Amino acid sequence: YPLSEMQAAVLLPQLKQLDTRNQRRFKNAIRFLAACHDFDFLQPAIRPQVSETDSDHQPAFYKMAFRLSDSFGAHQREQLCVAAREAGVPIDPAFHSLNRIHSQRRFRAVGDLANSNVLHDHLLILHHTALGSDAADVSAMASQLLSIGDAQRRS
Question: pLDDT band for position 122 (50/70/90)?
């Protein structure tokens, strides 16, 4: 997006902090991925192949997408997000399928958009505030999410 001169002037001092913030979010993303590695109800939508030593070629995590297992329905996804937010984990439903939020007259589609519907019901997004937290908070958020997910499955 093009920036106005005023917007650029406001953002310029933040540019100096970009590398530090990217590095912190990167380390916390790796931490969160490691913590949720054994979750059977939640998997990262993408598991990047990254090297902590190759700083010139690291992804810049801002948010992270996760996919709930098929055993969770759309209603359970919303309940999980509400409980997680109440516990301090900033996670929300992530993807809104066009065919679910707009009239069929507003777009053309081939077929029933089955994959889009699955993602609509199962995709979550972990917000940048989690990735900008300190290491102990990231570990605590992962533990909270595991507890909440396990409780949701048992109910």
Answer: confident
